[in-house]
Design brief:
Layout: H1 4-11, H2 15-24, E1 30-31, E2 37-38, H3 41-55, H4 61-85, E3 96-97, E4 103-104
Antiparallel strand pairs: 1-2, 3-4
Length: about 140
């Protein structure tokens, strides 16, 4: 964690710029009990990206804020996809509910080997069901 002056130095900016970015919601550093800002390495990397987008790409701060929001949304969605994929791995069921009704992933019971059975005889009953299986 870095104080604002060190974070500004690492990002190549003036500390007042970091305060402005905090007010605009571009970077949200942690706060100490005395309300002092503490910047992480991730915050410094974000500050560098903001500077690159602004200076090299000519994007205004509103556009940069939208880009950062969309990147964060993509990361959240990628994590959600990874979580959901864990439910459809081979050997897992997709829709299994626990007693409370929550969806949980469970292992499928092992399948019994398939054994060819001879056709069943038709009985002289009015409610008989005929099971037909083609011969292999």
């Amino acid at each position: 964690m870095f104080v604002i002056s060190r974070a500004a130095e690492l990002a190549g900016m003036h500390p007042q710029t970091l305060r402005q970015y905090d007010r605009l919601g571009l970077v949200s550093p942690r706060r100490t009990a005395g309300r002092g800002r503490r910047y992480s390495l991730r915050d410094v990397a974000t500050l560098r990206e903001i500077q690159r987008l602004s200076q090299d790409e000519g994007i205004n701060l509103a556009g940069i804020k939208r880009i950062l929001e969309l990147e964060a949304q993509v990361l959240r969605l990628e994590r959600q996809v990874d979580y959901l994929r864990s439910f459809v791995e081979p050997g897992r069921r997709v829709f299994t509910a626990d007693p409370r009704g929550d969806v949980v992933a469970t292992r499928r019971p092992p399948r019994a080997p398939r054994v060819a059975q001879p056709p069943r005889a038709i009985t002289a009953s009015t409610s008989a069901v005929v099971l037909w299986r083609p011969t292999p």
